Amino acid sequence: MEKRIIVTGATDGIGLAVVKGFLKEGCRVIGIARNPAKAEKIVADLKNDRLSFQFGDLSSVRSVHDLGLALNRLYGKEGIDALVHVAGAVGTHRETTADDYERTFAINHLAVHQLTDLCLPLLKRRPGSRVLVVSSRAHKVGIVHFHDVNLKHGYWLLTAYAQSKLMNVLYVRDMARRIDPRMVSFYAIDPGLVDTGIVTKTTPGLERWIWSWRRKAGEPALVPAGHMVRIALDPVFAGVSGRYWKNGETIHPAMLSGRVKTMNRLHALCDDMIAKALSRPVLPKSPDPALPDHR
User: Closest Cα to residue 46, out of 14, 19, 15?
Assistant: First the structure.
C-alpha cells in the first residue's frame, strides 16, 4: 500500500526538505501550510502529482480543528502512515494569537497536541503508523510555567522556545505511555543546528543578527530531513516509541521530560485550553494582515 504522510511546516526549511525526501521514497505527501501562493509555487516547481496541500493557521485552535476535520473527511477511510510536526515559531517580543495564547506555545506545542489528537483515528487505521515531533536541544533548559504558560510575566525568546520544546518531549513520552506502539509510535526529533530562517523571519535586532551568524555553521536542512524520513519509514524503527532522536540515534533527553505527573498535568492543561478556545463564539472574519509564515 502506498505510504501517506502529513507534514506541517511544509513550505520551507526542514519541512520542505522532509516533503522532498518522502516524495523521493514514493510516498504520497499532504503538506500543511498557511500560505496558498507559497504552496502553489512548490507544487509547480516539484511537478509531482503525489504532493498536495491542506491549509490552516496553526496558531488558531479553531483553524486546527477545522483542518483536522478536513483531513478526516479526505483520508478517514484509508488512514495515514505518519504525521510529521515540523512547523515552528519563535519571536523576540511576546505575541498572542486570536485565542489570546502566547504564539510560540500555540504553534510549537498546542497545535501539535491538538492536530495529533484529531489525526489519531487516521493513524490507527494503519497500525504501525508513526508521529514525529521536531523538538530541540533547547528543551534541556526549559521549564513548563504552569502558573503562567502564556508567559505574561518575564517573556524572553529562549524562555518561550525552550518551554515549548520541553513540552514536545513530554508529549512524545506521554503518548508512548497512552498508545499501544503496535498501533502508533511517537518520536521526538532533535534536528541539531540547521541552516534555516526560523528566527530571522520573525525576529529583529540582536537575536536576528546572532542567528544569521550561527546558522552559517548549521547543516543543510536535507541532513535532519533524511534522518526523519528514515525514522518514519524504516521497519527498524517500528514500535520504538517515546524516544528522543538525534542524527538517527537515540540520546537521553532532559530528566524533567520523564516526570509522569508533569506529563499528565500538561496533557490536561492543553485539553482544557483547546476546549475553552473552541467554546468561544466564532466572530465574523475581518481582513487578515500579512503575518510571517510558519516554518
Answer: 19
User: How do 184-190 and 243-246 pair as beta strands?
Assistant: parallel
Describe the strand order of the beta sheet including 129-134 as a list of residue ranges: 51-55, 28-33, 4-8, 82-85, 129-134, 184-190, 243-246, 249-251
> Which of 75, 161, 171, 244 is labelled catalytic?
161
Whether the Cβ atoms of residue 188 and residue 215 lie closer than 8 Å to each other: no
Please tell me whether residue 115 adopts helix, strand or coil conformation.
helix
Q: Does domain 4-279 have CATH number 3.40.190.10?
A: no
Torsion sign, CA atoms 62, 65, 71, 72: negative
**pLDDT tens readout for residues 113-150:** 999 999 999 999 999 999 999 999 999 999 999 999 99
Closest CA to 79 of 126, 129, 114, 28: 126
* Gap between the Cα atoms of 16 and 195, Å rounded: 13
244 is catalytic: no
Residue 88, amino acid:
G
For 187-210, the pLDDT digits (tens) are 999 999 876 554 445 555 545 544
H-helix or E-strand spanning residue 185? strand 184-190
Residues 120, 129: Cα–Cα separation, whole Å? 10
